[in-house]
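Researcher: I'm preparing a figure for a lab meeting and need a structural model of a single chain. I don't have an experimental structure, so a prediction will have to do for now. The sequence is pasted below. Please return the structure as C-alpha cells so I can convert it later.
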Amino acid sequence: MNRREILLAAGCCLLPGAGFGQSGAAILTHPLMPAWTAWKETYLAQDGRVVDSLQQGASHSESQGYGLLLAATVGDETAFDLIDDWTVATLAVRDDNLLAWRWLPTDPRGVSDFNNASDGDLFYVWALLRAADAFDRPELRDRASAMASDLATSCIVPHPDQGGRLLFAPAASGFNRDTGIVMNFSYYMSRAMFDIATQTGITAFATCATDGEALLADLAATGLTPDWTEVRAGDLVTATGLSDAHGYEALRVPLFLIWSGRASHPAVARQAAFHQMAGLSGSMTPTVMDRLTGEVRETSPDAGYAAIVALTNCARQGLDGSSVPFFTVDQPYYPATLHLMTLLAIIEANPNCIVT
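Model: Understood. Here is the structure written out cell by cell.
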C-alpha cells in the first residue's frame, strides 16, 4: 500500500479526528491502527481474552480468531502474542490441534464442551499465516499447517449427494443428521480458505470455498441466506430446530464475500435488494429478516451492522464512496468486530468504498 492508498483508506477507517499529526501529515501505520487501539482497549482483557459481554462474558474460538487476525493484520505483535498465549493455554485442550469453542467465566471448568467451531479455527489458521509473514516467524506457519490439516480432516466433509463436492461443517461433531448435514454458511470465508490452500498445500480448502459459493448462489435464488441450512442429497432445506431467518449469523455472508472479491455474487445482490426493499432509514439497521419475504423482525442501532449494509450497497452498485460509519466502541463486541472487518474489507478488496 503506497502513501496515497494509505491516505484514501484512512478516510474510511479512523476514529473521527484520528490518524493525523499536528502538521496534517498522515501517520504511516496501518490505517486501522487507531480503530484497533480503541477496540483492544474496550474488548481485550489484560490476559489476552476477547470478551463478549452479551454472551455471559464468554470468550470463543471465534472471538479469539477474529482478534488474532486483526492484530496480525495491523502489525501489533504484542497483542497478537497476548491473544495467542491465552487461547493456547485455555482453548487448546482437545486431542488434536483445534480449539474448544467456548470458555465461560461463570463455569468452574471454564471449558465444558470440547467440540470445536470451524469458523473460529479457520480464522485462527489464517491469522497464524498472516503473522508468520508480518512478524517473520516461520514457526507460526508450521502451527498453521498442523491446525489446517486437522481442520480439513474433521470439518471438510463430502456433500451428501456423493457427487464430489465438499462442505465445511460447523464442527467436528454434532451436525450430522440422518437426512443430511446442518450447515452455517456464514462460517465460510473464501479469502481465508484460498489463502490457506495456497500456503499449506491443502487444496480441499479451495475446493470447499468454490463449492460453498455455488451453494450460496443456490440459496440466493430463493431469498436471503438463512442462519442455518440442512444440506441434503437433493436439496437445501430448513434446519429443523434452528434459525431459518437471515439473522446475526448470516449477516456476515455478504461481508465475507465482498472481502473475498466476490461483490458480484448473487447473495450480495440479494442482500442489497432486500435492504433497499426494507426501506428503513435513520439509525436502525435490520439484523433479523425473513429470508423469503424480507420482513424485518429485529433492528439495531449499532454502527457495525450499518457498516455491513453500507459496504454491501456500495460494492454491489460500484459506487465511489459509501455511507460506512466511522468506527466506534459505543457498541457490543460483535458488531464492533464486524465493523473493523468491514473497514478491513474496504482496504483489502473495495478501496472505492471509502467514506465520503
